[in-house]
Amino acid sequence: MKKLLGVLMIGLLTACASTTEQSADVEDRAIGANGGAGDASALDSGSPDFHPLQDPNSILSQRSVYYDYDSYSVKNEYRELVMSHARYLRDNANSKVLLQGNTDDRGSREYNLALGQRRADGVKSMMTLSGARDAQVESVSLGEEKPSAVGHDESSWSQNRRTDIIYRGE
Amino acid sequence: MPIQSRQFFRSAWILVVWLISAPLQAGLDIEIFGGGTTRIPIAIVPFADEHQLEQSVTAVVGTDLERSGLFRLVDPEDLRPYAPVEIVYSDWTDRGASALVIGRTILMPGGLVEIQFRLMDVARKEQLTALAATVPMTQLRATAHRIADIIYEALTGDVGVFSTRIAYVLKQGDRYALQVADADGHNAQSIIEYTEPIISPAWSPDGNQLAYVSFENKKPVVYIQTLGTRERKEVANFSGSNSAPAWSPDGKRLAVVLTVQGGSQIYLINADGSGMQRLSRSSGIDTEPSFSPDGRSIIFTSDRGGSPQIYRMSVTETENSMAERLTFEGNYNVSPDFSEDGRSFTFINRNNGRFNVAVQDFGSRQMQILTNSQFDESPSFAPNGKMILYATEIGGRGILSAVSRDGQTRQHLSIQAGDIREPAWGPLAK
Fold first, then answer.
1. Do A111 and B421 touch (CB under 8 A)?
2. What is the pLDDT of residue B12?
3. Is residue A29 helix, strand or coil?
4. In this structure, is residue B52 part of a structural domain?
């Protein structure tokens, strides 16, 4: 019983730890938004009321690239999205992005982890070829472990085959 | 008559207590399907005075043997021989039993139990093997598994795996627990619990440690945890992803998958995390390494040929040594695991959207599909090579299942609430 309590305690401590980190993220977001506001004038597109990254009329507000089954190639319809973020990074040397590759939940978890990495790496490669510096872009994989849709059908699976572009401090 | 009915009520009461307590222990329930055509008919007579124990030894022995798919239980009805002189062999030939298990249990002071057991050959009317052991009441299940192992070995010639353990990941809500349980799913214990995913548990060859991948640091990192002390250490936390740990047979090294030099590639590290050395070198994905029993080669998943397939490469030669492709049927073969005799491997084959457990011999190169479910994952050989443990899905819920090497017998091990995935069958008890 003591051992069991020990495990539970570790679990609770972990839960607390991750909660703390999340609230830290929220604070970062505020700082990031203010800090980045100065860069907004660098972009001619978008309405003045929004930071270009948040402007719903700007392509920069779109943050996800979706894939075909088993595939890691960026489809033509997402090339402009990736290029726009690459240009933003080129023009805003202080901005950094995290690319999170994801897969649907079918098949091997480890292979999916590698496939998600390949998806994120592919987006990173496009970005660095279009002017973003290597140090501005980090690519990681969540594999099938963090699905945004939990259903077991093509509509859920297609939402989960995805690379998310996350600006640091957002 | 009154004595018998009292016995009945006592065992019924024990059964009720077990049923009530099972969900609290989060024990696994077992369902068995199919069965081989040439199963050995065996009669197991409840041991003398077994009803005084907290746990029926013969019930555990019977369930163990039955779920191996190699035995058929013959009902002893009201026959109760406890010693060889009490056996009327014609009773058992009449019932079609070729083997007979009898024994006694004797309560000793200090919560100890003496268990005597004999395995009899019905046709030859002679004893095949026997065991006498004095154990604490808490060790009754473990002793029953030992007895089942002895019977299995005496009658099949193969090593029994009823005393081994399994590891798996249990997801309940947003909590993930790495658990270790007996091979029959009982005595489940959480080794570690998190709110972030845990994947890919791998047993050290001595059964004392588990390597696994945790996402607690917002990215996959490989840890090794010692089961006895709960002590754990980070062994691969390089830039990028760290995953798919596999132990070398001598327990000194791990093959892991890192993205530190770009792409998912296989590296060797020492078990303390030092001495990182690149093993595979391809422009594609190389992952899911599994060591050969002699430690000289690995099999792994790679998409270097355009689709994920199983390959083999030497570990002893240079990193540029050629990898040999092993699978050719279908465009998705993943998650290989070497059998203990090194002659075959199990893996997941995708065909028409179904993911099934398959085996292939290195000699014949023939693939055999063993299951007909929809979403099988993570196959893992039993240490005697006779069963394969894997994860599958029923009604959208992850459960564990096991299939015999010939595909004849399958069993589900399910838990009351939650998703079970990523099983790994531990080594033989030392």
1. no
2. 39
3. helix
4. yes
| Per-residue pLDDT tens over the stretch B384-421 | 999 999 999 988 889 999 999 989 888 888 666 789 99
Give the distance from residue A45's alpha carbon to the nearest chain B alpha carbon, in angstroms: 34
Beta bridge partners of B421: B169
| In the block, residue with structure tokens 């990192």 | B221
Q: B234 and B203, same structural domain?
A: yes
By Cβ distance, the residue of B196, B216, B243 closest to A110 is: B243
Partner-chain residue, chosen from B196, B240, B377, that has the shortest CB–CB distance to A108: B377
* Residue type (1 letter), A74: V
Indicate yes or no: CB of A18 within 8 angstroms of CB of B263: no
**pLDDT at site B69:** 85
Q: Are both B202 and B349 inside the same structural domain?
A: yes
Q: How far apart are CA A67 and CA A71, in angstroms?
A: 6
Any idea what DSSP says for residue B193? E
> Are B52 and B91 part of one and the same domain?
yes
Q: Cα(B264)–Cα(B278) distance, rounded to whole angstroms?
A: 11
Residue B214, pLDDT > 90, answer yes
Domain residues for the domain of B73 are 35-156
The CATH number linked to B88 is 3.40.50.10070
Instruction: Give the distance from residue A42's alpha carbon to the nearest chain B alpha carbon, in angstroms.
Output: 32
The ipTM value here is 0.88
Report the chain B residue with the minimal C-alpha distance to residue A153.
B396
B397: Cβ–Cβ under 8 A, 6 or more apart, which residues? B419
Q: Are A34 and B213 in contact (CB under 8 A)?
A: no
- Return the CA Rg of chain B: 23
Q: How far is CA B403 from the centre of its chain?
A: 10
pLDDT value at residue B33: 62
